[in-house]
User: Fold this.
Amino acid sequence: MDGMHYEGFIIRPPSEADSILLQVTLGCSHNLCTFCGSYKDKRFTIKDDATIDADIDYAAKNFDFIRRVFLIDGDALVIPQQRLVRILSRIREKMPWVQRVGTYGDSRGILGKTAEELATLRELGLGIVYFGLESGDAQVLQDIGKKQTPERMIEAGRKVRAAGMKLSTMVILGLAGPKRSLEHARETGKALSAIDPNYAGVLTLMIHPGTELEEQVKAGRFELPNPREMLEELREMLVHTNMTRGIFIANHASNYLPLRVKMPADKAKAIAMLDTALRGETALKPEWMRAL
Assistant:
């Protein structure tokens, strides 16, 4: 074999840039979010054991200097427990030097596992879950096609934490448009506070070609907040986010003003920095430098 069996466009978190990417599913089990075009070209399937095994064997022979593995595509936690245990056990057997396995996880995948099952996955090396909360506002979650309530999203996030795994929770500025912007920010801050993740990753909405949201923009049914409104939303979200520890990060390539806030110690300083930017005293990232 001359490489790993990758199919389609590959997505991974920025913090997993140096990880072995092991493709265990194709696409996303939900794949209905209006803003996301990442997996539109893939029908969701769980890859067969033989292909996964071959990729683990290849990685074991060629990547013995890499200490982390990230499971792709969209949501490995929907894989039935027995098969997921098999995958993690094989990673441990063939690559004993791997210190952490990570995955994306949506609320259905997380809530579909018992507390005991999640604890077993943690014992087998699953050390971090990247969870797309997107918003803590019930109306926004409905509008973007998440098909989940804030309460269930909070329950899912807390369940990961209770299992002893690290949790990186992702939220998106701009999803509510200008009119509901601050309510989205406040409710998202409250949800982040209730979940209390290790990392809160804040992205800024960019309209992805071929998505339902792009159609809404063309039809005049959705308007993207302007850069100032995005900053005001970020400030409001941070004001209402009370994490007992961890990092509030808004330094994704999509963001206008990069922030990395150690919580709770640096929160007041970060709000003051946002106030400086809102007064026009700090330059924002130009559009041409922003990226998905």
